[in-house]
């Protein structure tokens, strides 16, 4: 992990919803979190495997078989190599809110007439971006530790916010929670999100003012006010900002304004800053700068996931095809899985081609699931082969940044258990590339060297 000065390497695009994004445990994290304990690489990779298993289970049509196996250990579910943003939740002074104010408002204040006033800032909450979940949530007072996890941010206290409201059990928002509904307590709607790996969050389903940046606010933002969670959640985060395709996510809640369009760029290391954007790119980022591939539609799979068709991987010009069974299942874009998972036959060929191109460097012992590692001590410059992801019908090819090929001096790919399982495109391979999700338009765009 690289530490040092926090560096910004990209100018904000011409979009009013631009927000800085950084990785866990780097100098761009808050000062109070700089002393956080970074898990050993083997432990981090073990946690990442549980995350990948979770995604695979939720995509599996054999749900009964997965449930019969039981959940994994709930104490090892989170990974530190994650993208996070800071938002403000709540307000410290009541303000008028009418039905017409639902949605996004490009203003830092609301009100101005009799009976209204300027909204004072809420509390800063650091949240992990998650493209593979639907319900946003933060920890809320009362939240004893345990069952809640320690956090460096001030705990959000709904009693201190003049714009907070808990949904009643008869509200439409509560009735539409579906699998996330968890009954009723004191006429307040209760939610629970339980992941197949054993981690969970539960509490009161609520709404409040969400401030993304000084020019963008979401009134009546719906989220889980968590009073208990299970899992090894990092102290740098207060919760999760869900970006999935379900109706509860931030993307669905802001659809009337932004058309279910968002993008992010993960920086190459924790010493740099990336970005998160709601809505279409600004004028400076023309569509011609993106490599575009269709989003896959499949009513048999959860609406949560964003999937594309990965046809092949090229290593140093050598093309390795993805088996048709895995290609047809789609490749899931996940902002929280670290290492990309490939079908075993494709991975074996990718590994062979990569090892052949790297035979001048001394090999090192495997690290967890990563079996192609190198000892670069004393080597001033390392030349890596070009690695490219080839999407739908060869119409879209995205060359990975050099930072997206290795992880801790190991090839940042691993094998699924069999060739039928979907590919998972992890966040290492996404580094420095702006990934644009045009959900209503049915497409995903990739723009290289964006951050």
TrEMBL record:
Q: Which residues form the active site?
A: 130, 334
Q: Which Gene3D superfamilies match?
A: Acid Proteases
> Which intervals hold domain Peptidase A1?
110-447
Coiled coil ranges (UniProt) are none
The superkingdom of the source organism is Eukaryota
Entry's family note: Belongs to the peptidase A1 family.
Entries under PANTHER family matching the protein: ASPARTYL PROTEASES, OS06G0118700 PROTEIN
Listed name of the protein: Peptidase A1 domain-containing protein
Q: Species name for this entry?
A: Urochloa decumbens
